[in-house]
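Need the bound structure for magnesium ion, inputs here:
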Amino acid sequence: MHKDVESVLISQEKLENIVKSLAKQIEKDYNGREFIMVGLLKGSVVFMAELMKRIDLDFEIDFMVVSSYGSGTESSGEVKIIKDLSVSPAGRDILIVEDVVDSGRTLSFIIERLKNAGAASVKVCTLCDKPSRRKFPFVPDYCGAEVPDEFIIGYGLDYNEKYRNLPYIGVLKRSVYS
Ligand code: IMP
Ligand code: MG
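Answer from helper R.:
Posting the output first, comments after.
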């Protein structure tokens, strides 16, 4: 275990099972539809790479870079689009892939934006959800695991751009950020 990790919250084995089960649900729901899977960079890379390999359908992938966090553990309160989709979402079915939903600000903003741009449908698949932290009403369509109000890292999730490479999801030691 990494020295900055307090405890392992979701092990590698559990993550594998979560991804398999989410992929099955998506496969069933999107069977016969041509959707675009949109990863929110950078947190979703590991999850999305594993997820897409397990979905036996024809679909495109794309990425968006949005920032709502500064460099700490609290959201800065403002969502900025750093990199937009490379194709128009008009008339398309969009499946957003996210690492963790916290206040719900990022996803509320993005869903609204994609709908305004004429997307036929917008659904969200998140690996983790912290429902107790919600400030903007939002319920993900697919959720891997509900997690407590702790700062988590690994499997794509970072603190100050570090720890994304950990193969499990762990709770970050408070001494690292306080
Ligand atoms: P929201 O807009 O408040 O829902 O924030 C969602 C974004 O905050 C996610 O995409 C993550 O990048 C980041 N975030 C929230 N909680 C955590 C965490 O515990 N660890 C790492 N990143 C987090
Ligand atoms: Mg993120």
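Comments: The chain has a mean pLDDT of 95. Strands lie at 5-10, 35-41, 60-69, 75-83, 93-101, 121-129, 142-146, 152-153, 169-172.
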